[in-house]
Design brief:
With about 230 residues, this protein is of the alpha/beta class. It is built from 6 helices and 7 strands; from the N terminus they run ββαβαβββααααβ. The protein has a 4-stranded mixed beta sheet, with helices on one face. A 3-stranded mixed beta sheet has the order 1-2-3. The protein is flat and about 75 Å long.
Length: about 230
């Protein structure tokens, strides 16, 4: 592939993309035989930058579709919400390794019913019908009061799960750090290369992880509005 920045971009700078552009390949053997091609592995700055943009950007985090569902009256508004447990911490702490990889998914309708178990994401993907953009804007505008009500209920429901997830993350971190601390202490007794400073640094990092994980919160990451037809 050949990638060059230009006026067509949706943002002023793409992470990992030089001003004069670049040529790359996803095939290692090709990159090894061509000095002018960069190997676009998962660790390449361009690939990691693209993934960060997808995960943290606003583009693509809302959707609207219509579905035909038995037992649900036409015109019923349903909201699917995805929450992720997040916390701020220095990159070196690798805090994300202790956070749940799977998002929290909640699905509610205008009657306050929790449909999370009754209707999966896969079913919505299969049954959902695309809606023209101008029609979607009109539908959202018309359903705005109902949507706000459902989203408030979903956020309350998510808040009720937050502490359980935080406690689980803390328990995982404490156990892993305890085992590692004990291993370092055992090594330090037989290996002079393991210095006291390393033990202290590990303990400090554990304290910081405890502090940052305790402040973790569920953050709304994506919404899908579903209207029954």
């Amino acid at each position: 592939i050949i990638a060059r920045p230009g006026n067509h971009m949706q943002l002023p700078h793409f992470p990992g993309l030089p001003e004069d552009g670049m040529s790359g390949t996803f095939r290692r053997e090709v990159a090894m035989s061509r000095e002018d091609l960069q190997f676009l592995s998962w660790e390449h700055p361009l690939v990691q930058g693209a993934m960060d943009l997808i995960l943290s950007g606003d583009s693509g985090n809302t959707a609207l579709c219509t579905v035909k569902l038995g037992g649900i009256s036409p015109g019923t508004v349903i909201v699917e919400a995805l929450f992720v447990l997040g916390a701020q911490a220095p990159r070196g702490l690798q805090l994300s390794r202790y956070l749940p990889a799977e998002p929290v998914r909640l699905l509610r309708d205008a009657l306050g019913r929790d449909l999370s178990e009754a209707l999966s994401t896969e079913q919505l993907n299969q049954l959902g019908e695309r809606v023209p953009k101008h029609t979607a804007h009109a539908l959202v505008k018309q359903a705005k009061p109902v949507l706000q009500q459902i989203i408030e209920q979903i956020e309350e429901q998510a808040a009720g799960r937050q502490q359980t997830l935080v406690d689980q993350a803390l328990a995982t971190m404490r156990e892993e750090r305890r085992v590692e601390q004990e291993r370092l202490e055992a090594l330090s007794r037989v290996n002079p290369a393991i210095r006291a400073e390393e033990l202290e640094a590990h303990a400090r990092d554990s304290e910081m992880l405890e502090e940052r994980l305790s402040l973790a919160s569920l953050q709304l990451d994506a919404l899908r509005v579903v209207i029954a037809t």
